[in-house]
């Protein structure tokens, strides 16, 4: 079984308090959608027609949220069935972990299918090969609620075992809460700071990665806004002034905060680094943005670039500079894609990703 990781800084209620609340809310909302949909959906569709939204903007929002809550509910049911089948991992521990990973991938594919059907989201992976090989640390862009599932999606294609650093807040999503405790993950309180107890947990996550494991981290910590960018640059001017002007050139991404990534490097000194860039989530950072543009197709193009560990600096300060340079490369790639107003798709059997 995967080792148990703590929560670093306790910022949400413990499971005995949290889960009855999240399960109860999920159950009530799922039942309400089931009961109300036959009456509400025709009214929403008619309103869309009258207001000129022929693609069904309001009805798409209703169906997306309904499908999301119901697949979350099905995830709870599946996780409970697995607990009964394996007695919480006491029977066939290896099969227990593998079954939970299958459920995790199914959960991700289901949400991607809903996003594609109702919100026009399609993930196009340019090349799967950089994700394959030995153990790796996947350092990913994070600009929207949508692209949080990008690493899990592409790692399934590459037949990798994902090991996530997850925000504690996500434990309010009941299916993720259940399955995420059973697979290789660590729950963190936003962006970890040097000296935080979470750093040791992240390092242990990397140390315990299986041979086919890929540890995933989002070093920006949150979505970009101008205010967050300015705060990040001011922080760099205090801590790494030599990097501040360089990072201030970033137009689409926040400067990466290196503490969590460095912890993964220390825990897995044999692991290569994979930089995971994406373009297509711009303007869809928040739930309100997704709703506002739900009737507009939005393909997400994903590019993975692998760096052999021997080519990556070992010194922490030098690595931080190296990571900022990779973020500048990513920013330039995003700019080129947006300027060209096209998302190139490689002609392989792995692209596009089909849910």
Structure description:
With 355 residues, this protein is an alpha/beta fold. The protein has one domain (1-355). It is built from 11 helices and 7 strands. Strands 1-7-6-2-5-3-4 form a 7-stranded mixed beta sheet, sandwiched between helices.
Instruction: Tell the overall outline.
Output: globular
Mean pLDDT, nearest integer?
Answer: 89
Main sheet specs: 7 strands, mixed
How is the largest sheet built, in terms of strand order? 1-7-6-2-5-3-4
Provide key terms for this protein.
single chain, 7-stranded mixed sheet, disordered C terminus, globular, 51% helix, 355 residues, 12% strand, alpha/beta
Give a brief outline of the structure.
The protein has 355 residues and is α/β, with parallel strands linked by helices. It has helices at residues 15-50, 57-86, 93-119, 150-157, 174-180, 197-207, 226-239, 241-247, 259-267, 287-292, 316-340; strands spanning 121-125, 136-140, 161-167, 185-188, 213-217, 272-279, 298-307.
Secondary structure layout:
Elements: H1 15-50, H2 57-86, H3 93-119, E1 121-125, E2 136-140, H4 150-157, E3 161-167, H5 174-180, E4 185-188, H6 197-207, E5 213-217, H7 226-239, H8 241-247, H9 259-267, E6 272-279, H10 287-292, E7 298-307, H11 316-340
Parallel strand pairs: 1-7, 2-5, 2-6, 3-4, 3-5
Antiparallel strand pairs: 6-7
Helix pairs in contact: 1-2, 2-3, 2-5, 3-5, 6-9, 7-8
